[in-house]
């Protein structure tokens, strides 16, 4: 996705030299600013720029016409392929993978029963929590019974396992068919959501530009759609996707024990993931303030991802260990367990600090034994009204901006480590999550930079690291050396604006274009 700047005049806009400490999608120097930014389609009015330059034709073609169909085909087919990789088939063909694509009676029964169970718990009277307000003023309500749903689901599965002792083994044996069924259900749901967005949108005031059909199918049209009174993203992301993760890894563990007997490594693999998923349901209300909910629209990317990709890839280390028993020793497994529990605890603590800060009146709470520090950031909503948000500068959030991602990666590595010595397959989830969280980091920072302007720039000076290792840290060298480190093209342009407008004639929070610049003058 791209951000392109163009000035009022036909002359190209030049900026002072802002060099970065590593190659990245951000590179600004004395050239025409024509830089595609990795994450969001942003319309930024900054400095004296008053028009958005159209991206090159090839970029639009790739983004809107090539990427969506390629991703739709590759990921949808990859699920069926991976389902067979984890089995014991010695000869794997695409014909074999396609033979399970429509499921069977067992898979349809399991998916249907599980989906009805999830919908039922979203209809059970319970407390309501509201997510952050959208730009069009809507605060989506969510059912606050995640912990009860989690334990009730586990008790229900264990009860069914006791009644039907072969249940876990059958789930493992029919995993290709289960994923085939989920594929059909998820693709159908995405098509219905697309039609709903066209003809019966939940919020007609939620305007979005018209895009090619497959692109809209991939990204989705609506931010918070509801069907039969149920929030679609809470259903797909939390109640089906995350709970399926828990049920499947438990089934795989029991199937492995039945085949090979007890293994400390597989137990550690199960326990670490179970603690992580249980933590998610304990923290479910905090999840409603994350990018998945407040930014991603309900389409293939998020709904299919949670309904199919999560049960397939997120459980893959456990799935693979059923047919390929681990060779890790008991002592090593215990060390892995300690590492995993520590990183999960730290991941929870990072998220808890943000949630506690948000709930505290006026942000008045103590973190690490000191009153929480924060930046009061102003921004304008879609109606032009000035709003405020608090950017936390204390606790883990004062040390690095995405430390929760670092700990989540380490936790995922821990529960993949029981597959050490079995090749790359048990580590597939860790590899994918690394790419996902790097991408999400950039998406989050571009969103914040656009929303908060110079307040975000100040926050990045106060908290210069993206994670504890300083990865992706980008340096700044230019006339305004006191600005320190900046982290995106948006921030580079903010620096440029202050360099060019030292008298303060531009209101920083507005990101609007005042006077026509003298583009011929070298800075």
UniProtKB/TrEMBL annotation:
Biological process, per Gene Ontology: brassinosteroid biosynthetic process; cholesterol biosynthetic process
Membrane topology: Multi-pass membrane protein
This enzyme's EC code(s): 1.3.1.21
Catalyzed reactions per annotation: cholesterol + NADP(+) = 7-dehydrocholesterol + NADPH + H(+); 7-dehydrodesmosterol + NADPH + H(+) = desmosterol + NADP(+)
Organism name: Coptotermes formosanus (Formosan subterranean termite)
Listed GO CC annotations: endoplasmic reticulum membrane
Compartments where located: Endoplasmic reticulum membrane
Keywords tagged on the record: Cholesterol biosynthesis, Cholesterol metabolism, Endoplasmic reticulum, Lipid biosynthesis, Lipid metabolism, Membrane, NADP, Oxidoreductase, Steroid biosynthesis, Steroid metabolism, Sterol biosynthesis, Sterol metabolism, Transmembrane, Transmembrane helix
Pfam families (alphabetical): ERG4_ERG24
Catalytic class of the enzyme: oxidoreductase
Keyword Endoplasmic reticulum among UniProt keywords: yes
GO molecular function: 7-dehydrocholesterol reductase activity
Family statement: Belongs to the ERG4/ERG24 family.
Presence of the UniProt keyword Transmembrane helix in the record: yes
The protein's name: 7-dehydrocholesterol reductase
Transmembrane regions listed in the UniProt entry: 66-85, 106-128, 148-167, 179-199, 240-257, 264-283, 298-316, 328-348, 412-438
Lineage: Eukaryota, Metazoa, Ecdysozoa, Arthropoda, Hexapoda
Main location: endoplasmic reticulum
Pathway: Steroid biosynthesis; cholesterol biosynthesis
């Amino acid at each position: 996705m791209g951000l392109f700047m163009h000035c009022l005049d036909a002359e190209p806009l030049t900026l002072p030299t802002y060099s970065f400490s590593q190659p990245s999608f951000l590179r600004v120097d004395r050239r025409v600013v024509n830089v595609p930014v990795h994450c969001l389609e942003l319309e930024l009015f900054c400095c004296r720029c008053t028009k958005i330059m159209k991206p090159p034709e090839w970029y639009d073609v790739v983004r809107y016409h090539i990427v969506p169909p390629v991703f739709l085909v590759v990921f949808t087919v990859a699920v069926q392929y991976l389902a067979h990789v984890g089995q014991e088939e010695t000869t794997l063909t695409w014909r074999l993978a396609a033979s399970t694509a429509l499921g069977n009676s067992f898979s349809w029964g399991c998916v249907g029963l599980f989906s009805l169970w999830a919908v039922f718990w979203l209809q059970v009277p319970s407390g309501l929590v509201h997510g952050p307000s959208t730009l069009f003023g809507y605060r989506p309500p969510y059912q606050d019974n995640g912990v009860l749903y989690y334990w009730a689901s586990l008790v229900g599965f264990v009860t069914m396992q006791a009644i039907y002792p072969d249940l876990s083994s059958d789930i493992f044996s029919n995993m290709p068919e289960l994923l085939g069924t989920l594929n059909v259900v998820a693709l159908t749901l995405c098509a219905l959501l697309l039609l709903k967005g066209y003809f019966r949108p939940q919020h007609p005031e939620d305007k979005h530009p018209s895009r090619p059909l497959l692109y809209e199918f991939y990204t989705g049209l609506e931010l918070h759609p509801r069907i039969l009174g149920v929030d679609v993203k809470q259903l797909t992301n939390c109640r089906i996707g995350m709970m399926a993760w828990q049920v499947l890894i438990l089934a795989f563990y029991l199937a492995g024990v039945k085949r090979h007997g007890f293994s400390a490594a597989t137990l550690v693999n199960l326990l670490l993931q179970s603690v992580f998923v249980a933590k998610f349901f304990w923290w479910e209300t905090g999840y409603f303030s994350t990018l998945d909910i407040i930014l991603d629209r309900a389409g293939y990317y998020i709904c299919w991802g949670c309904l199919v990709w999560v049960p397939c890839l997120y459980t893959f280390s456990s799935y693979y260990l059923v047919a390929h028993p681990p060779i890790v020793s008991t002592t090593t497994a215990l060390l892995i367990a300690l590492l995993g529990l520590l990183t999960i605890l730290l991941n929870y603590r990072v998220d808890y600090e943000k949630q506690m800060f948000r709930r505290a009146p006026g942000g008045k709470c103590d973190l690490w034994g000191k009153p929480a520090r924060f930046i009061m950031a102003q921004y304008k909503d879609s109606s032009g009204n000035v709003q405020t948000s608090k950017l936390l500068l204390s606790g883990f959030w004062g040390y690095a901006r995405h430390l929760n991602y670092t700990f989540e990666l380490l936790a995922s590595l821990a529960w993949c480590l029981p597959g050490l010595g079995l090749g790359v397959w048990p580590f597939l989830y860790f590899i994918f999550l690394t790419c996902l969280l790097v991408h999400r980091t950039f998406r989050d920072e571009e969103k914040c930079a656009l929303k908060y302007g110079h307040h975000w720039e100040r926050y990045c000076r106060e908290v210069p690291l993206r994670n504890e290792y300083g990865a992706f840290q980008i340096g700044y060298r230019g006339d305004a050396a006191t600005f320190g480190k900046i982290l995106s093209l948006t921030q580079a342009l903010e620096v440029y604006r202050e360099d060019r407008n030292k008298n303060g004639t531009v209101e920083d929070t507005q990101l609007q274009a005042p006077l026509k610049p003298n583009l011929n003058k070298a800075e």
